[in-house]
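Dear all,

This email documents one entry for the complex benchmark we are building for the journal club exercise. For each entry we list the sequence lines for every component of the assembly. Then comes the predicted three-dimensional structure of the complex as a token string, followed by one or two observations. Please use this as the template for your own entries, and keep the labels exactly as they appear.
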Amino acid sequence: MSRKSKGRMSVAPLGAALILASGVWGAALAQQAAPEVKSHTTSPVPPYEPSLNVMPQPEQPGQKPGDPKLTPEEFAAANKIFFERCAGCHGVLRKGATGKPLTTDLTKKLGYDYLRDFITYGSPAGMPNWGTSGELTPPQVDIMARYLLNEPATPPEFGLKEMKDSWKVIIPVAERPTKKMNDIDLDNIFSVTLRDAGEVALIDGNSKKIITRVKTGYAVHISRMSESGRYIYVIGRDAKVSLIDLWAPTPNIVAEIKIGTEGRSVDVSKFKGFEDKLAIAGAYWPPQFVIMDGPTLEPLKIVSTRGMTYDTQEYHPEPRVAAIFASQYAPEWYLNIKERGEILAVDYSDLKALKTRSIDAERFLHDGGFDRTGRYLFSAANARNAIAIVDTKEGKLIDVIKSGGDKPHPGRGANIVHPKFGPVWVTSHLGDETVSFIGADPEHHPKEAFKVVQTVQGQGGGSLFVKSHPKSEHLYVDTPLNPDADIASSVAVFKISDLAQDKPKYTVLPIGEWSGISAGQRRVVEGEFNKAGDEIWFSLWNSKSQESAIVVVDDKTLKLKSVIKDPALITPTGKFNAYNTRKDIY
Amino acid sequence: MSRKSKGRMSVAPLGAALILASGVWGAALAQQAAPEVKSHTTSPVPPYEPSLNVMPQPEQPGQKPGDPKLTPEEFAAANKIFFERCAGCHGVLRKGATGKPLTTDLTKKLGYDYLRDFITYGSPAGMPNWGTSGELTPPQVDIMARYLLNEPATPPEFGLKEMKDSWKVIIPVAERPTKKMNDIDLDNIFSVTLRDAGEVALIDGNSKKIITRVKTGYAVHISRMSESGRYIYVIGRDAKVSLIDLWAPTPNIVAEIKIGTEGRSVDVSKFKGFEDKLAIAGAYWPPQFVIMDGPTLEPLKIVSTRGMTYDTQEYHPEPRVAAIFASQYAPEWYLNIKERGEILAVDYSDLKALKTRSIDAERFLHDGGFDRTGRYLFSAANARNAIAIVDTKEGKLIDVIKSGGDKPHPGRGANIVHPKFGPVWVTSHLGDETVSFIGADPEHHPKEAFKVVQTVQGQGGGSLFVKSHPKSEHLYVDTPLNPDADIASSVAVFKISDLAQDKPKYTVLPIGEWSGISAGQRRVVEGEFNKAGDEIWFSLWNSKSQESAIVVVDDKTLKLKSVIKDPALITPTGKFNAYNTRKDIY
């Protein structure tokens, strides 16, 4: 286990943007993209793509004497790069979150040379080496350094008019099938993000064949299933929401809408009486969420999340919606409002008199998941090394606790029955090798409830996801962002019964080797169980021009079961099993 | 009754800022201020007063080629004038509300000459004649016209730090008396705003003598009494909240705080168990409210009101808190969020998990009041000629109805028992002579409930307040903003029993004549009953350098009872009888 120390990450002074999930797909891609890069003599800036909806500004706002100038074309190109690569961690307005603030009072102190070099070489703590990886050309690094010395452009607002302009009902509800028109085992479909293709692949969990691929937004962040299981909602980083109808002869997109210029989260109404009725999507920019009609995506109610931080009570112009969770106890969604450090409970039973409850938690809230009963919600405030725990039955904060490691990044976390402490919820960490177990059964284990009952050491830092299943005896821990290639391309597995030991050992699954692919960084990310809970799927995620794969492992034997390969399987990242996602099984 | 048509107001194209209460004291003062004006050869711009907390900007934000320039001194002076005279109607960010928008896309089309002339001469619909009234000198009009062609300066945020920096507990709770230390009849005190003196006078309702005057914020907008009757909370237009302890040997200010740079509303917690515990104040800038500890004004929870308009669902950067009402049925305040058109119900029982309910109503919400039972809340959306009605027992919107006139301005309105329709709530209008009666007794008069059951004609437009009392047989209607001096200086009184007639007549009380003051515009404003309900007080409001007075009328006989004069009684406007205000009797 000496390898774990190799992946340990420490925090560097500026730009030490530990790449959490908000920006993680982009950043990790950058780190592995070197082989893709072409000559530096190509056009210094890519053409501006207005489809990304980041408006170029005819003049640089806030230009002051002495600020380095950019041409309008350079400004537009820098804006586009900042949106695609930087805003996830640093914020559209550069106020900082997972990444450090990059406001001009700070960047001007550091100066052009420092910025250029930092962008070029990155930092060991997570700021990608955009230059030496080849992801950005030297002229691009140059315009980014100059761009950062100018005031950020505030992107446009995106209200009801803009949403309605973007909204398309491709197949009206009346023209959709009234029963399932295919013989697919819908509960065992995997909705797989093909990040750089701007697509989602639906893969049959039984045959392991691609059923279909659908065009979605850019870099789909998550898939969520409607309560009936008929519909899949996906959201791209460009805040485009697509609705897939699984009852069609071949599942297809029946509606789509853009809800902003950047987004991460989508969910559905799950409370009794509201099944399949409503959906909600959260934006990073503008900082807002929108409640939509479930079957059509018609935007019904937009709510801004701008407001005060919970602790210092100062106004924040960009409090982003990081994650959304549907309650089973009330017609409510819980929204993690990242920069405010507040969990917002939104009651969707009356949109004309919208009830919300703004629960003080901790900055900067990111992702999280439920315990196995679906009652207790664990959310990571990763920049503060904390987990906020909410009782969704009582609708109340239970506690905010330290996670026991550096920068918890649970995804949705994992639920296991610990041999000593009973039901626990699990998170790994981005910043170190710690895997933390938090008691989640106050009824039978009141002493351990909502406390970190144990921490164990995994392969190293750079972990994004842990995963288990009620039928599994294992806990899987990925490490795709670990700088060590062996660690990044393999997965640690703990036997749950071993957790009674003081220093439990783990088995390393060499997923990269098993894939049969030898080229590329072969980052292995996001285990996802099938419905039966007897196999777990991992993405082997290479760059756009390289071969990727999905590697299926037999959970009982921990042996390779099959490798899914297809020329269309470009940059697979998140995978969402329809049944497990719908039932919050992880 | 031919005189009524004289006061009829119509809407002019731009700047037709019908002067509602947000800006009404300032605007009306301007219209009457001519005698005060000194030579135009005095300094063209007044010195900048940093105490007003509108930060001068070292450079003009958004300066574009061709924009007229202002020196930093001119910009600071224009900013100050805009804050004091214009922002109330047009908004700090000039997005418009009661007044028209003055964003640069509009002002540039109109051009410098148009703006200069409009500021100089005003419009018959309510834009004050700042130039010809002498309130602004020609050089001041010139800088204002140039200022409007430049982008507005966004004033600074005002968070917990700024509030705490401004917060003073002058007499700690432990050092305050534990029982009433004077023999004043506290229930019959009148808290009287001395607008231009930046003071509040406490007047003994029995002896009609000034008990004391206390230094407050600029142009105190309202006074509100704590549930026990011990404390008075006042808020100035500069968002300074002052807390007066009536138990002191001589009532005095025991705490103060600034909650922003512009404010209008303050209220207290009235629900059982929370009496005298909490206070809330609403700001115009920044758009936010703050919940404070009642006896000390310690700021506890700040909430931004920035968000989407209820109807077009577009982001508004400046949704102001126009009025606040305390529920007796729940630990809730109802806040009129002007530009959003939403009534926000704020539950103050748990500040760490603040519950709010955002009730869609109508733009642009202004003031309002309860029916006599305190259950039904009537709020004017005056720019849309509408009244939003909320059932505070059920916590629900009942309806939004047309008021029957042009720009309802109820103040808190008046409650009478109509001879035909039973209990009704009454509002007059700024834009015309209409007085509207709205059914408020669904139990015994279900057919008439929450409908305009009758409209009658008063003296003319320019009315701000109606008033009655459970013991009174009269309804009083002021018209201080009517351009006709006779109408502005008198009050119409309807005998309630006459309202059964088709076109009931009213009696005119020549309050101006009765005051014995002959100089000045002698605007008569805001009738306020004493606790016994047998006399009603009116402010005779002249300019700062002229004599003003309070005129007391015997309600039974409608005869002059007494005139309160005092050299210290400078620009009296709002008057708040302690008992009636506390018990919502109007």
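Observations: Chain A is about 15% helix and 35% strand. Residues 1-62 of chain A have pLDDT under 50 and may be disordered.
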